[in-house]
Amino acid sequence: MKINDTVFSELEFDYVWGKDTTIEIFGGEVNISLIVDGDEDGEFSEKQYASYNTLKENWGAFQQSILKPILDYYKPKRSELGYDVSYNEKYPLIESNDKLLESIMLVGIFVPSARRFEGRYIGLTFDCTWDQENGLGLRLLDEAVIDVGYQDVVI
Fold this sequence. Notes:
There is one protein chain. This protein is an alpha+beta fold. The chain is built from four helices and eight strands; from the N terminus they run E-E-E-E-H-H-H-H-E-E-E-E. An eight-stranded mixed sheet has the order 1-2-3-4-5-6-7-8. Strand 1 and strand 2 (about 10-15) form a beta hairpin. About 25% of the residues are buried. This is DUF2004 domain-containing protein. It comes from Paenibacillus phytohabitans. InterPro entries: DUF6985 (IPR054254).
């Protein structure tokens, strides 16, 4: 089933609402999946609309603010796995935003059902070179990163 939503545009239902779209990030364009949690009736909440619209409106300025939390997650994860003392090409030393950007790629935006969270909630999922199986996820609440982990952290 397909709908044409006023905020999310055309979405298709396959257990969740979604579509593939293109987004600009860090000076380039990438193809991502936009996933919007909701029932088959295609009715979304005002909180979901506010979450997505606020992210879109602040996307340009917001992009740089996610890099530090990702680095803050990566460095101890690398150390925890022992790759700060023994080399592993999947976990290289990353100390700059430029090096980090070589290692991550946005692949999805998740807009959960509003009844699950207070505030404006969005999840971002990334592919990353250091963990191709689990990827990287960021949970955002009111446009601030509140959790970083594997991709499933956004659910």
